[in-house]
Amino acid sequence: MSFDVDDDWEAPEPPVPEEPKRPKFKYANVYEWVEQWLSRTIRREMNPLAGAGLSWDHRWWAYPEVVARLSSLHLAWEEARSSKDLSAMSSWWLHHLDPHLRVIFDSEHGPMSHANRENTFLGWPALPVAPAPPEVKAVTLGLLTGDEPPTM
Length: 152
What we know:
Layout: H1 30-41, H2 64-82, H3 88-104, H4 134-145
Helix pairs in contact: 2-3
């Protein structure tokens, strides 16, 4: 038995998987989310005295850690809001919001722990960092990527 093979025939391209479409956000950015949702939903007694009770500074955007945490919360909230999983929002409250608020509102050690009515506290200084030596980076990054680290 013989088969005729058309010389012009080309194998079809395999289908390219489509990128999942990101749902449209309800709040375009963390600033909208904090001003229009978080600040209206979270209602706690904040102590106006620095270092006591719960701490919050209305200038939350002046604290890099708070901005980073609230940005993460906003993105996770948007994902939970658009999820088909009916327990997603409950999970967001328990596993995302509550742990972050414990840190953000911590009046003893949190990023806004010494916020006061006079607006004189602008956050703690950045953590001191010594740059890692190149040989340490090579070994560590090699372990993380699965590459063979260079021999020393």
